[in-house]
Design brief:
A seven-stranded mixed sheet has the order 5-4-3-6-7-9-8, sandwiched between helices. A two-stranded antiparallel ribbon has the order 1-2. By secondary structure, the chain is α/β, with parallel strands linked by helices. Helix content is 41%, strand content 18%. It folds into two domains: 52 residues, no CATH class; 190 residues, Rossmann fold (3-Layer(aba) Sandwich), CATH 3.40.50. The structure holds S-adenosylmethionine.
Length: 271
C-alpha cells in the first residue's frame, strides 16, 4: 500500500478494513470500516498500517482520528482525556435552560477533561464566563486547545486543582461536574479500560460516590445558600447520590434521564 496505490483508495481501504475488523470480532465491522476509509483514505501506507494496528488492538476510533463530535462541535481528544459521551449532552441541554433562568454569570466545570461540557455551554451563551478545572495538566492543555479553536479563550480560565481545593466558587455561578464514578472492577465497554485515562473513569474501590462527596463537602463549606450544582450520575447511582446530597445539606431540585432513558443528571441546591 503506497500512496496512490489501490489499497489507499476508499473502496479498497474499506474492503481491507472490513475484512480485518470482521475477523478480529469488532462489534460493527462494516460501519467501522466505512468510517475508517472515509477518515484515512489517501494517507501513507505506513500511517494506514499503524492506524489499522491500533484499531485492531482496541484503541477507540476517536483517539485514532484525534477528535469526537459532541453537542454542536468537534473536540480534540487524545488518550489524556475521556472521549465525550452522548449521555453527557443532557447536562448541556439542562444547563442551557438553567443558566438564563437563574441569572448565572460564571459556569464552573469540575473535571473538565476535553472541556466538552463547559465549551459547549459557553459557545451557546455569548455572555457567559467559564472556569474549567482538572487535576490533570495534560487534560487542561487539550481543553485549552479546544477553547482556543472555538474562540472562547478570552472568556474562559483553566485551573489545575483537586476539585475546589484551589478554586473559589464564583458569584452568580453554576457548578457542573461529571466526576469519575465507575468502580474499578465494574465492566466497561471494549477498549475503555485499556485506553481511556483511569483518573477520568474510576472512583476508589467500594466508594463510587467518593468524588461527589468531596465536591459537595467543599461546596457546603464555602458556598452561599442556594448555590446550584448540576451533576452527571452513573446508571443506578441516582438514588444513592440523592441520599448523600440531602445528608450533606443539599436540596434535590430535579433529575433527568439521558437520551437513552437512563437517570443521568441531578440538579441540587445548597440549603
Ligand atoms: C468522567 S471525566 C469527565 C470529563 C469531561 N467533563 C466529560 O464530561 O467528558 C472526569 C474528569 O475529572 C478529572 N478528575 C479526576 N480526579 C480529579 C480531581 N481530584 N480534581 C479535579 N479533576 C479530577 C479527570 O482528570 C477527568 O478529566
Amino acid at each position: 500500500m503506497s500512496r496512490g496505490s489501490p489499497s489507499s483508495e476508499p473502496s479498497l481501504l474499506f474492503e481491507t478494513a472490513r475484512a480485518l475488523f470482521s475477523s478480529a470480532g469488532l462489534e460493527s465491522p462494516e460501519l467501522e470500516a466505512r468510517f475508517f476509509a472515509d477518515a484515512f483514505a489517501g494517507q501513507e501506507e505506513a500511517t494506514i498500517r499503524d492506524l489499522l494496528r491500533r484499531r485492531l488492538a482496541g484503541e477507540p476510533f476517536a483517539y485514532l482520528e484525534g477528535s469526537r463530535g459532541f453537542w454542536k462541535h468537534e473536540f480534540r481528544v487524545t488518550p489524556d482525556v475521556l472521549i465525550p459521551r452522548p449521555d453527557s449532552e443532557v447536562l448541556v441541554e439542562w444547563a442551557l435552560e438553567l443558566i438564563p433562568a437563574l441569572g448565572v454569570e460564571t459556569l464552573l466545570d469540575l473535571g473538565t477533561g476535553s472541556g466538552c461540557l463547559l465549551l459547549s455551554i459557553m459557545s451557546d451563551l455569548p455572555d457567559l464566563d467559564g472556569i474549567g478545572v482538572d487535576l490533570s495538566l495534560a487534560a487542561l492543555e487539550i481543553a485549552r486547545e479546544n477553547g482556543d479553536r472555538l474562540n472562547l479563550a478570552d472568556r474562559v480560565q483553566w485551573i489545575q486543582s483537586s476539585w475546589l481545593e484551589g478554586v473559589r466558587l464564583p458569584r452568580q455561578g453554576l457548578l457542573v461536574a461529571n466526576p469519575p464514578y465507575i468502580e474499578p472492577q465494574e465492566e466497561v465497554g471494549p477498549g475503555v479500560r485499556e485506553h481511556e485515562p483511569h483518573q477520568a473513569l474510576f472512583a476508589p474501590p467500594g466508594d463510587p460516590l467518593a468524588c461527589y462527596r468531596v465536591i459537595l463537602n467543599q461546596v457546603a463549606d464555602g458556598g452561599p445558600s442556594g448555590f446550584p450544582v448540576l451533576f452527571e450520575v452513573g446508571a443506578q447511582r441516582m438514588e444513592a447520590l440523592c441520599g448523600l446530597a440531602e445528608s450533606l445539606g443539599f436540596q434535590v431540585v430535579g433529575q433527568r434521564n439521558d437520551f437513552g432513558g437512563v437517570p443521568r443528571a441531578l440538579y441540587l441546591c445548597r440549603n
